[in-house]
Write a structure and sequence with these properties.
It is built from 1 helix and 7 strands. It is mainly beta. It has one domain. β3 and β4 form a beta hairpin. The chain binds zinc ion (ZN). Zinc ion binds next to loops.
């Protein structure tokens, strides 16, 4: 007999649809949760230090770095910091 809540293991392609539900659209409306202090706020409410190399988004409550966005040639690199959770809605 199979349990009703059995899990399956598949490859990472399954994440495409799931992550699109979070990352599509205006990312500044996403709510980020800080691992440092637990504050939850829209990314638009972070404090951002910006220069020609990129941007550092800091938690408005405790100033920990949530994430860094770096311009590298034609690409962009996102380095996650104290961003514990990202959610839409
Ligand atoms: Zn914080």
């Amino acid at each position: 007999m199979r349990a009703e809540n059995a899990t399956s293991t598949v490859d990472g392609n399954v994440l495409a649809g799931l992550l699109a539900g979070v990352l599509d659209g205006d990312v500044t409306t996403l709510v980020g949760v800080c691992a440092g202090c637990g504050a939850a706020a829209a990314l638009a409410e972070t404090v951002v230090e910006i220069d020609e190399a990129g941007a550092i988004a800091r938690c408005r409550s405790c100033t920990h770095t949530l994430l860094t966005v770096l311009q590298e040639g034609d690409g962009v690199r996102v380095v996650l910091g104290m961003l514990r959770e990202l959610r839409r809605g």
